[in-house]
Amino acid sequence: MSQDEIATMEKPLAQRLKEETAGAHSEAENSDFMSRLLAGELDAQAAIDLTAQLYFVYEALENTLRTTSESVQVEAVFDRRLERLGALDADLRHLIGEDWKNVVEPLPATMNYVERLREIGSTGDANAALAHHYVRYLGDLSGGQVIAKMLGKHYGIGAEGTNFYDFKAIGKIKPYRDAYRARVSDLDVSPVDKGAIVEEAKEAFRLNREIFAALRD
Fold first, then answer.
1. Which DSSP letter does residue 69 get?
2. Which pLDDT tens digit goes with each residue over 75-133?
3. Which residues touch 131 (CB under 8 Å, ≥6 apart)?
4. What are phi and psi of 147, to 5 degrees?
5. Using an 8 Å Cβ cutoff, are 167 and 173 in contact?
6. Second label for 119, Cα 20 to 30 Å away, from 12, 63, 66, 126?
7. CA dist 165 → 17, 89, 109, 173 (Å)
8. Nearest-angstrom CA–CA distance, 42 and 175
9. How many CB atoms within 10 Å of residue 145?
10. pTM reported for the whole predicted model
11. What Å distances lie between residue 71 and 7, 181, 189, CA to CA?
């Protein structure tokens, strides 16, 4: 094993996740769909479509996290205050109507993500569950406030349609994020586990990027 590989393995897990997924994170964040949405170049329907697809993702994600919540990996970050499914349902009721579930369907790209999350839940893969928790919730906490602001500015979608981005229940976001990263880095897991978590996080970003690509089309 090279000195560089040893140095990488010795880094805190949160640092590895940030550094080693930076490219995948940037590709997802700067996808054509998200860039145009946040620049005000699309329309309110595009924002509604994104919200609808996220509902299916979080339905699967939160089921999987509850299934794996007693594992060392997921227990470290599991927090029901982060759960988004109820907020997404409220947003869609406001944006589409009470019968929204009869109107929208998951895209094939969304179903790919859903199926991966279900597989993680069925196999109890705690490393993978943590990776998806990290990618989705930490991303929501980091960029969600800006997204909500842009949806209001460009498309007139106010607080009643952006509950998904409201994390008042956890208090101040930055201290929460810092504590989250500390708990991840304090995990007593093997180097092999850490590597698996990082690789699955890259996959999570890819799956998110595929949804954005499908929404663009």
1. T
2. 999 999 999 999 999 999 999 999 999 999 999 999 999 999 999 999 999 999 999 99
3. 196, 197, 198, 199, 200, 201, 203, 204
4. -60, -45
5. yes
6. 12
7. 23, 13, 22, 12
8. 34
9. 15
10. 0.94
11. 27, 17, 11
